[in-house]
Amino acid sequence: MSKNNIVGKLLLGLIFIFSAYTAYATEATDEEIHHELRQTLKVVESAINSGNYDEMLPVLSEHIRATPINQEFLSSRPDVSRYFTKWFGEKGYLSKLEIRFTADALTELSADKSWGLVVGSGVEKYILRDGRPYEMHTRWTATMAKEDDGRWRVRGIHIGTNFLDNPILGEAERALGKAALCGLAGGLLMGAIIGWLIGRRKKKI
């Protein structure tokens, strides 16, 4: 075997080893990114479920664009803070919110690994001031961005729900049904009383 052939095979071998190492290193980097993204969602979940809402602010972009389930539009960290204070604070309309995010799959990363898109489902359990719970099932889409300091943050998120499958609407429908039954029963009772009075009057005549 000639010297040139030996050198050529060595070069091919080195190229193969380098390519395999590069692929492994890229895969490992992607796994680190996905791990950080999963931790980001957990921080948001934990902050909401514990009622310490401002703890999520560091993992939200300063230029966050968020649309929660009630379709308000939030365009900054202070907006997010005010939203949770208004709805779930000490004087908020509701007592508590418990939330769970479940991603459908790994975040779809851009070619330069500077942003990603992730979709999934969620469950939002609202506790009213009188203790009544309402569970809402949602779908959500989030854009994640790697910002100048190297950290991944939520840049945008939109949460929606099937308004036809709504426990609050369901209770309203049940309340209407009860009202209709009460009205029917009241009408029958009133009719019976009127009939009895008419019959009694005829007897007197």
UniProtKB/TrEMBL annotation:
Transmembrane regions listed in the UniProt entry: 175-199
Signal peptide: 1-25
Gene3D superfamilies, sorted: 3.10.450.50
Keyword Transferase: no
SUPFAM superfamilies hit by this protein: NTF2-like (SSF54427)
Keywords linked to the UniProt accession: Membrane, Signal, Transmembrane, Transmembrane helix
Keyword Signal: yes
Name recorded for this polypeptide: SnoaL-like domain-containing protein
Organism: Dentiradicibacter hellwigii
